[in-house]
Amino acid sequence: MSQVIDVHTHYVPRGWPELGEGLPWLRVENEREATIMVGSREFRRILADCWDAGVRLGDMGEDQVDIQVVSPTPVFFSYDRTPAEAVRITKVFNDLALEICEPAGGRLLPFCQVPLQDPELACAELDRCVANGHRGVEIGNHVGDRDLDDAGIVMFLRHCADTGVPVFVHPWDMASSPRLNRWMAQWITGMPAETHLSLLAMILGGVFDQVPETLKICFAHGGGSFAFWLGRLENAWHQRNDVLGGSAKPPSSYVGRFSVDSVVFDPSALRLLVDVLGVENILLGSDYPYPLGERPVGQVVHKAQFLSDADRALLLGGNAARFLSLPEQAG
Prior knowledge:
The protein is 38% helix and 16% strand. The protein is an alpha/beta fold. β9 (217-219), α7 and β10 (259-261) form a beta-alpha-beta unit. It is globular and about 55 Å long. The chain starts with a strand and ends in an 8-residue tail after the last helix. This is 2-amino-3-carboxymuconate-6-semialdehyde decarboxylase. InterPro entries: ACMSD (IPR032465), Amidohydro-rel (IPR006680), Metal_Hydrolase (IPR032466).
């Protein structure tokens, strides 16, 4: 059996230098527990699985995962800061990510973050990180009101395509309102909507027509609600001139230009992804180690009785090996 590769996990270092007023800091409770703070506000309680390679490897062993892609937690992106501040912050976390992954002997593959608000600085930091050992980059799905069809972000995506660096897109900075501030609705409904919106920007904004087909880009959480509503988008593109946007072809033509992860929890939802996007475009993900993630990792893939053994192997690791330019190995 091929390697099992989880492309969607996150890290948080066990402390970092003071970043400045209003920026995240870590309130360490003890050796195994801490709280991410933003100013005086508690953002998220975390455990040692965020920073301890040994704990992660133990959990990977329980779930029979061979390799994890380890990406930043989006609260650290700092897209609202000046470019100079953002460069300083991203360098801190990118260098600490290498320290977290180093003890794992190649089983933890770090993805960096970049100051996406400044495309030239983002490209420079990406190049620095790849030279130092990062294997890809995680970006947020927007920078303020700039979506993924923004000219500067398109420039960065072209650079990723030209250098062969895989891109993982994660939703973040969801809208807030009295209706969304209950029941974790920002995460339960807002995150899927954010990812759907940014896939629309990639398509209707003409990004897939502007970047090389070599771009390797994966969207978190099954691509949000995109697969379910592709038919509605297709109909609107044909019926409404104000939906045509800058895409040269109908939306369905771009299926195959991007991947999504498998964090959808239910086999029927996974089947929709397979039917609409194709089995070769879905990568195993878990959102480890956070509470809205999947444990044991890959259980939705194992439960999906409609998958053939060959398709299951692609979802568990074959597709990710291609995305990461790793050699496929027999288990």
